[in-house]
């Protein structure tokens, strides 16, 4: 309805009213590519060019078959820039549609508060108990499973932590943190190939989350020269399409991440 209203305002030449209608469309149906696409078009036609390009990136993320939008993004940013804008669009979409943004009831709020206090005290057994109870109430809350995984991992329960992180990913596949910690816990169990797959997802969703890790600071400072050569990491196959900085981070992870995070 809002998209059609935006079209009507556009036909009348009222770009500002069309902008408002398309904005409401994206809020009412955030997974609908059409709202983001037309919001992008109307923003680009006014003084909101950069916002328009971000809206178009969100539209292409939701509908990868939209060749018209893909051509616009490619012309604007180039191939590498388009991939970066799509990654940002994925993160923005995941953040705005994450279940934890919805209001939670008093029991869940109480459990989360108690669990956080237990974690601050480093009472990981109590934190595990409380976060496990929270996941019973909030079965689609990725953060609840993420924090449960942390509590388990701190007790050296890596297999249980792995399951918790995977449950968090199932709730929100575009949430980078569970993928990151899944990679750490898989490395701790000697599952290097699976760990690299998890880190590959993080590189796609939020490469800065990896660059911030202490083990990887050399990649940020010195670029690919700081990393070991590919041939020195047995069995390593790099994903296609990585930039120089991401390649350096990937190689350092493959060679150096050991044990618990």
List keywords for this structure.
261 residues; flat
Account of the 3D structure:
The protein is mostly helical and 261 residues long. The chain has 14 helices and no strands. It has helices spanning 2-11, 15-28, 33-44, 49-62, 67-97, 106-120, 124-137, 142-154, 158-171, 176-188, 192-205, 207-211, 217-222, 244-256. Helix 1 (2-11) runs antiparallel to helix 2, helix 3 runs antiparallel to helix 4 (49-62) and helix 6 (106-120) packs antiparallel against helix 7. The protein starts with a helix and ends in a 5-residue tail after the last helix. Residues 217-228 and 256-261 have low confidence and may be disordered.
């Amino acid at each position: 309805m809002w998209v059609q209203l935006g079209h009507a305002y556009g036909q009348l030449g009222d770009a500002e009213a069309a902008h408002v209608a398309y904005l409401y469309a994206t809020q009412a149906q955030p997974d609908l590519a059409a709202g983001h696409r037309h919001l992008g078009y109307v923003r680009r036609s006014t003084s909101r060019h950069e916002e328009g390009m971000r809206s178009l990136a969100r539209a292409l993320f939701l509908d990868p078959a939209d060749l018209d939008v893909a051509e616009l993004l490619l012309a604007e940013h180039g191939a590498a820039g388009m991939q970066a804008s799509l990654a940002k669009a994925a993160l923005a979409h995941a953040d705005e549609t994450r279940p934890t943004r919805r209001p939670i009831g008093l029991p869940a709020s109480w459990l989360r508060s108690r669990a956080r206090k237990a974690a601050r005290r480093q009472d990981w057994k109590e934190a595990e108990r409380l976060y496990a109870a929270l996941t019973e109430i909030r079965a689609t809350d990725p953060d609840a499973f993420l924090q449960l995984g942390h509590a388990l991992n701190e007790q050296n329960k890596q297999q249980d932590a792995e399951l918790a992180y995977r449950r968090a990913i199932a709730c929100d596949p575009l949430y980078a943190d569970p993928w990151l910690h899944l990679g750490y816990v898989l490395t701790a169990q000697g599952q290097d190939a699976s760990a690299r797959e998890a880190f590959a997802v993080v590189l796609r969703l939020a490469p800065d989350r990896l660059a911030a890790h202490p083990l990887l600071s050399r990649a940020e400072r010195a670029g690919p020269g700081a990393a070991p050569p590919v041939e020195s990491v047995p069995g390593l196959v790099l994903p296609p399409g990585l930039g120089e900085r991401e390649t350096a981070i990937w190689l350092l992870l493959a060679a150096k991440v050991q044990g618990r995070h």
